[in-house]
Design goal:
Strand content: 25-35%
Order of helices and strands: EHEEHEEHHHEHEHEEHEEEEEEEEEE
CATH superfamily of the largest domain: P-loop containing nucleotide triphosphate hydrolases
Low-confidence stretches: 29-33, 252-257
CATH architecture of the largest domain: 3-Layer(aba) Sandwich
Mean pLDDT: 82
Strand order of the largest sheet: 5-6-7-3-8-9
Distance between the termini: 39 Å
CATH class of the largest domain: Alpha Beta
Number of helices: 8
Number of domains: 2
Length: about 425
């Protein structure tokens, strides 16, 4: 059984600055070549209880699509059929009255979503606890921070027991801990049979939650199918577009990406020499060389290499080991779903891995870097520099049990 059906949906906006022209456009039927098309002939269906994702770059039509489904906008042509009570978290704080308190807005929004006063009374404590905004619940919304508005808005839409839940990019403004709580709640609703329509630039969240996915580009459908396949195509296209943009910038400025030439002190090196690591460096996000490991800091591992022979499927990666030679963690471009393009002899490439440095036990650590060719299951090593970078976690770091500390997003205590 389908919970949502979208058929040949299109939406255009007038380009004229005339108010009369915009008025006529609002009541006109679809006309080829008129207006700016935010959506053009979009069709899909979502089954009851399914989690369905929507991805696309900024300006692709995602928000317009969700606003039409939620009934906020009217389409220029096409139809939307919604079967079930729908809750939507779209623009941050939409539907909140700024002069009303948080408590009053909970009752207002929940009633709009179809709950009786008695039902809201029964759920208010749960909503308040999930939002975790303390005494601000009785203060006007206009006094809230952006994060507090998000907390209250999500708490309401996620606890009215919607049959269909729409979540747009609003979660992106929340802190990591609250985002994780929201994702757990979304997974709980999904397990309970709620239909989810989920839009996010965090493709990892979309893949983890959704079975199927729609890819929008410039208002038209570029892909529709299994989430893994669609997101893989989407990321590949985004990377190709970025490579073209970089090439155009280099052609304009006659500059190349910065090559790291910092000497590596590797203890061992091997490979078939079809590529050569020319340098690697661990820096802060601002580009300052890191002398000590700073837990929680944003950091960049920059790896540069020269291509000696053509590479059809290059992979750049790294490993972090302790003094005993034990691998703590590592990754590469393929595992992170950022495939590198084919490369020709003589080219120089630089890859930046962006981290938030985990909390490690005090001691010395070593970063090995490598360039390979092939797939995760079948590859050959072009150049591997073992322990090329040395960095120390100072003894003043907090005590860590084991190798590293994995922070809990929250701790919940249940009685009984």
């Amino acid at each position: 059984m389908t919970a949502l059906e979208v058929h040949s949906l299109s939406k255009s906006y007038p380009l004229s600055n005339s108010q009369w022209a915009r008025f006529r456009h609002a009541f006109a039927q679809e006309r080829s070549g008129t207006g700016l098309w935010a959506l053009r002939d979009v069709s899909f269906s979502v089954n009851k209880g399914e989690a369905f994702g929507v991805v696309g770059a900024n300006g692709s039509g995602k928000s317009t699509l969700l606003q039409i489904i939620a009934g906020i906008l009217q389409p220029t042509s096409g139809t939307v059929e919604v079967r079930g009570r729908l809750s939507a978290l779209l623009e941050l704080g939409s539907g909140f009255a700024p002069e009303f308190s948080g408590r009053q807005n909970v009752y207002l929004n929940a009633s709009i979503l179809g709950l009786s006063t008695e039902e809201i009374d029964a759920r208010f404590e749960t909503i308040e606890r999930f939002a975790s905004i303390g005494d601000f619940i009785d203060q006007p919304i206009r006094t809230y921070s952006t994060g507090m508005v998000l907390r209250l808005a999500f708490a309401v839409v996620a606890h009215v027991e919607p049959e269909i839940l729409i979540v747009d990019e609003a979660l992106a403004v929340g802190d990591i801990a609250f985002r994780q709580r929201c994702m757990r709640r979304i997974h709980d609703l999904r397990a309970g049979g709620t239909t989810i329509l989920f839009v996010s630039h965090e493709t990892g969240d979309v893949k983890a939650l959704c079975e199927r996915c729609l890819w929008l580009e410039n208002g038209t459908m570029r892909g529709l199918g299994e989430a893994d396949d669609v997101i893989g195509d989407y990321l590949s296209a985004m990377m190709q577009r970025e490579r073209v943009r970089d090439a155009e910038e280099r052609a304009t400025t006659k500059q190349t990406a910065p090559e790291v030439v910092r000497t590596l002190s590797g203890t061992h090196r091997y490979g078939d020499e079809t590529a050569e690591v020319s340098g690697a460096e661990l820096t802060t996000a601002a580009g300052v060389h890191l002398k000590h490991w700073i837990a929680g800091a944003s950091a960049v591992l920059r790896l540069s290499f020269r291509v000696v022979a053509p590479l059809r499927a290059p992979i750049a990666g790294f490993l972090v080991r302790n003094e005993k030679g034990e691998t703590i963690f590592g990754s590469n471009t393929t595992r992170e779903n950022y495939p590198l393009p084919e490369m020709q002899a003589g080219e120089v490439h630089t890859v930046d891995f962006h981290w938030v440095l985990p909390e490690l036990a005090p001691g010395r650590y070593f970063v090995s870097v490598a360039v390979s060719e092939g797939t995760l299951d079948d590859f050959h090593v072009c150049d591997y520099v073992e322990d090329g970078i040395e960095i120390e976690v100072p003894s003043t770091a907090r005590e860590v049990r084991g190798y590293l500390r994995l922070r809990c997003s929250s701790v919940e205590i249940h009685r009984g």
